[in-house]
Amino acid sequence: SEATALEQAVTSMSREPFDLGAVVRGCIEGYRDVYDNRLFEYESDAGIANVLGSADLIAQMLDKLVDNAVSFSAPGSTISIGLTTAGEGHVISVANEGPTLPASMRTSLFDSLVSIRDQDDHKGHLGLGLYVVALIAEFHQGTVDARDLPDGSGVVFTVTLPTGN
């Protein structure tokens, strides 16, 4: 029922133009305060990155990706966030050092009620975080992907969103 409520909430949002870069930069400033035991690195080649959608939903999506990165990285490590322009879209990336993606979970990572967290993690995760990321990307007519970093030192999640002129 939680997943259904989320789907309905996301699909009922209105779409407005906004600058994706401003939203990402604002979120990162907040993460530096909230997660003071992680370093946040931001790199962007995007000037004004216009997107049609919901700035609030993008902030929520980024919150889920960063929460995931924090959960799977060590204190003191760096979480790298990027915003690039590629073709007719903008790409947000969130990368962290830590365990790589389990091969058995790669096809279901963005499904509802899926979690790869350690069972000893007593934070009560419902397995909805990455599902919410996928819902929000879909609302913005975008895509989401997860891969191991090329050197095998961690993972990177990418969200590609079309430009909204």
What does this structure look like?
The protein is built from 4 helices and 7 strands, in the order H-E-H-E-E-H-E-E-H-E-E. By secondary structure, the protein is an alpha+beta fold. The protein has a 5-stranded mixed beta sheet with strand order 2-4-5-7-6. Strands 1-3 form a two-stranded antiparallel ribbon. Strand 4 (78-86) and strand 5 (89-97) form a beta hairpin. The protein is globular. The N and C termini lie far apart (36 Å). The model is unreliable at 113-122 (pLDDT under 50).
Topology of helices and strands:
Elements: H1 2-11, E1 16-19, H2 20-34, E2 39-44, E3 50-53, H3 55-71, E4 78-86, E5 89-97, H4 129-139, E6 143-148, E7 154-162
Helix pairs in contact: 1-4, 2-3, 3-4
Structural class: alpha+beta
What is the helix content? 25-40%
Give unreliable regions as ranges: 113-122
How much beta, percentage-wise? 25-35%
Question: How many beta-strand elements?
Answer: 7
Number of DSSP helical runs:
4
Quickly list its features:
single chain; about 160 residues; alpha+beta; 5-stranded mixed β-sheet; two-stranded antiparallel ribbon; 7 strands
Summarize the structure.
With 165 residues, the chain is α+β, with helices and mostly antiparallel strands. It has helices spanning 2-11, 20-34, 55-71, 129-139, and strands at 16-19, 39-44, 50-53, 78-86, 89-97, 143-148, 154-162.
